[in-house]
């Protein structure tokens, strides 16, 4: 596939996600690769009403029972392992019925094979080989569905985040990002022209938008952020402001500070948040 500058970024991201998913292998003999839909089942929404995590918690319990039973079997504690595995099978059956549209993700063949081996007190290496097929049932579903579920139910919607500025205007999260990027980029340019009055205006706008960014973090995070907008990053802003106030023309000093902001704030923040934000846009279209 050839990408051009004219291709919208969201289209490129969607293409990459789908092409990656469609070429991933299906682990184990079952289940077969499902039809890939960007839509999540309607029945799943019930388990996340009111910001609950009922489905995720049921999955965690499933994983705990599975992991405990396997490790007990590997340690040859077969009697305890089989009790745990039967509890795992019960939980597996319950979880498989929570979202009927996903029943094809829950084959029973690999489970029956492992149960038989544990009951027969088979060698741990033989149990481990079959256990991997059960573990890959989980992986197979997670490959196709987990990120969509997390983007939809575990993250708040980025397009609903806004800040009211000093003029009473609503500023979207996207606008804050664009303004931060533009103002950070233009300061070295104005310094190069030795237009410190313009540089001071741009820095004021930059500082305001950084405050808006920090405020927007509070829309989702209850605790103060210790990264991306922390004191280390703020120190770089203050140093940029100091250079402008003293009308310093050392362009290398400005560029070094700007690069440090990019590397310590912009880039790592985008790595965490951008995939989810773009996935939310893709799923809503």
Describe the 3D structure.
The chain is mostly helical. The chain has 2 domains: 25-154, no CATH class; 158-284, Four Helix Bundle (Hemerythrin (Met), subunit A) (Up-down Bundle), CATH 1.20.120. Helices cover 68% and strands 2% of the residues. The protein has a two-stranded antiparallel ribbon. α5 (109-119) runs antiparallel to α6 (124-154). The model is unreliable at 1-31 (pLDDT under 50).
Summarize the structure.
Helices cover 68% and strands 2% of the residues. The protein has 10 helices and 2 strands, in the order ααααααββαααα.
- What's the total helix number? 10
Number of strands: 2
Q: Average pLDDT, to the nearest integer?
A: 87
Strand content: under 5%
**Coarse structural class:** mainly alpha
CA-based gyration radius: 26 Å
Helix content: 55-70%
What is the H/E string? HHHHHHEEHHHH
In one word, what is the shape? Answer: elongated
* Major beta sheet summary: 2 strands, antiparallel
Query: How many structurally independent domains?
Result: 2
Strand order, main sheet: write it out. 1-2
For the termini, the CA-CA separation is 22 Å
Note poorly predicted spans.
Answer: 1-31
Task: Give the topology, please.
Elements: H1 9-23, H2 42-45, H3 54-74, H4 78-98, H5 109-119, H6 124-154, E1 162-164, E2 170-172, H7 173-192, H8 196-217, H9 231-245, H10 251-284
Antiparallel strand pairs: 1-2
Helix pairs in contact: 1-10, 3-4, 3-6, 4-5, 5-6, 6-10, 7-8, 7-10, 8-9, 9-10
